[in-house]
């Protein structure tokens, strides 16, 4: 529904913004800059999972690869860019003073990287050790990071390093400049491997004309090719996108006269323990209501209960001057340091007016407190807690930015309290610039008071904001800050008992803390019970503890039982107060599930032309979590007219790969546009954003990183299939045990549109596909329905055109396709079928959605259509009716062309007919005579052979009884085997046991022959390996069966105030790889221990089917002898990747085809069995030999 006149549409205003800082991944690579044709600030991080004994190899290989990469970059950009300076962050656990880890330069132990651009880690389950880029945003936006397998850096030949540098150059344009792959992929429905050339009409490979160059320029660019880059960038050449980037636009970094690239300098740093200084404003503004008391309670709660051991913490307060109240000290659980620092705040605030406060004084005092530490200030975090009001001179802001940059510190800001202004846009007087410069984040705590009291919501918001900033600073800590498992508010006066549940899973340690926060101790009744997953009731009488300095009653649960816990707490709070129940724990060392939240905004200037997209990345270690339920909570701050909180809005994020906004399916990045909201005539409204993720009631899965196995490593490296187009497909996945994570992003300010007009269009369609019916020459188009306001709601109608040229298609010029279906809810697949007589010519079709006020979405991805002219021996009957959805003048004579064909006939004279009949009769007589002769000749030959065999049988008096082994050969294929003569023999019976009339051998000869043959699973590769490879290649010819369906959007497309149902997106998975066998293992039966995630049922045998629809752009052209691409700038990965995280190619071939490879049998032919075989059936079996 659109906004009424009493409400106003909101757009993002200029407010306090910052990218959420992550020590391992920051989505604002501002530290990486191109200065005088040289990149500075590139940060390379080596994973903690890599062993130290590989240190020297990795560092040597890294220096060689980066030097070669600098040359490749210089050559690819025409001398505009190369690599000047690189920072290498070593794992904290590596000992750099040993022989196994000799550094190439000095080590700086104090510097902590503000962002990571290149990750060196273990191999990826799909990309292996090859470099790849995670791209969460569209064309022209930088990637999230580059990941590189350490195996590429441990090579022993320079050629391997050079090849690695070329592959790194191949992914750099995607990471730095936001371009995409200009190539197709086998079996990809959106970006096929082949397409029809518009000029020649022939099928060609879907790639750049000059595939040996890492950047496709305007000359070699193919704008009509159906690849990911053309879809995302609307046909622009990659070089055009690159030259419009911040690195090169406005004639920046023009080519130099130097003919050589820069040699990068490597600076080595090692992450130390986090150092935090909390700087608190102490002015008269904090003396109102409970503001100062809440600050003291929040600081004590976080320092005493939530901060991990081994980090360093100090406290500074400031007004017109600044002073240190707690010197920098290391946290531990033995001494009284936590109590001392947690109680270091003054009991009462000062009377200094707010206008006299000195922010610069607070920052300078914090730097002096950090200088006491031998490591200095570099890499430390300053948490600035201030009201944000009052005039801060610009010179002080500039000086704070200079100090932060020079000293290398990060600033996290908490605006407390924030008084909402009705007519004024509050920018916090430069704080947003200070925070964004240091890659920090900003949180806002709204002022919520009733008379002289402040609401408990205000205290909890302050506590959670402080905890969130500490967690960001402690990401590199060995133990990490407290992890929020469960948090829920219970308002007073609604229910006498607060009931709820939470889950303890194996991703956290077994110790947990159950806490009840209150405004007044009398608000908590006497009943406080916990019920374990096994049903035992734990009373808090002998377990609970109270801390009045933090307004909390808590229970420590050591060795907590895994599973779902239930609680009930007596709630005696007043109607304007309430209780807050939270459960916290620590993350497990063995299993680390990370939830990272950010938005697409890089600065404070946002409007309707730059819509807000919410991103949430979920990783289990380094592996993406698929099928998770990711729910965003968006709640307006403040109180409504009734003096109560605004109801929160819940909506799901999706990893569906539809292209707008989610780029690639299966990367573990879930995204969605922020809904268009309305509010009651307020110019500025603040919302708090948080995201929760869980295992989706058991549907969540993750890929198995079987590439780590050394037994399969060589097998993976020789494959030639590249990845990935619209989705990342994994060969083996496994279900994820229960988990739940919550991450707070911060506050978003929305400004209403004074005109109240709807200016928000539908989102872009990027999955348009076309199928051609080869019999009736019908064309079927299908796509996923977009929304009305971006990906929300339901559009009004569709517009589609069929253009004769690519330029017209991008401009949406051409013949309109009428009768388009009515748009359905966002995420539902739709289709239309049309007829055409446009034969032997290439046309382009595009589509877009339009809302009720005329806002139209951007033009969709383009599909090209080519229909061959039907044979001239047949003609179409005149149409009886016309289809309502076609209005082409040159197609009107072919509408409804599925009538029966009229076969032309010509009259024959009587003499001609007699000649024809006589010729046919004579031919039939000759055939009959020849067939009779052949019959008697063959029968006579068989009788003689049968008599000879009987004579041999009488002489030998022995026979061979065959074992009941499974054969891999079809009966009609045995005759084609080399050196084997197929004979049909008669089986006789002696004393009730069948014997064969075929020649026999003694047991010793048979056993000797058997021992000569090696087993595939127990011997090194032999000639059988070639046969098995042929068998797999044979199966690859048969495509997997894909399941079509709507995408997982909620049924209701309006923002919901309750948790929506889990998405319907559900995929299948296969069993784990068989470690003892170098090929994909698929037993062909169900594992009873695995839950049935597959909608089709993995045990069910899929029936073979056929369809008369075929894609215009086939994956393998019959006109081409396809040679595997050897482009060094493109990654090659495992071919056995299956569709939608389902079964492997082996199992797909098993279910869809009964053909078997042709192999020479080791012994005499055996009767074939009608079974579906797998690779496992090729293992030779020992025969049972019986001498009669």
Automatic annotation (TrEMBL):
Q: What are the UniProt keywords, alphabetically? A: Membrane, Signal, Transmembrane, Transmembrane helix
Ranges annotated as biased composition (Polar residues)? 1043-1065
Q: Identify this protein by name.
A: Calcium-activated chloride channel N-terminal domain-containing protein
The segments labelled Disordered in the record are 1041-1065
- Write down the CDD domains for this protein, in alphabetical order: vWFA
User: Transmembrane residues, as ranges?
Assistant: 913-938
Which positions carry the signal peptide feature in this UniProt record?
1-26
SUPFAM superfamilies with a match to the protein in the record: vWA-like
One GO CC term, this protein: protein-containing complex
Alphabetical list of InterPro entries matching this protein: CLCA_N, vWFA_dom_sf
- Stretches assigned to the Calcium-activated chloride channel N-terminal domain: 33-191, 215-252
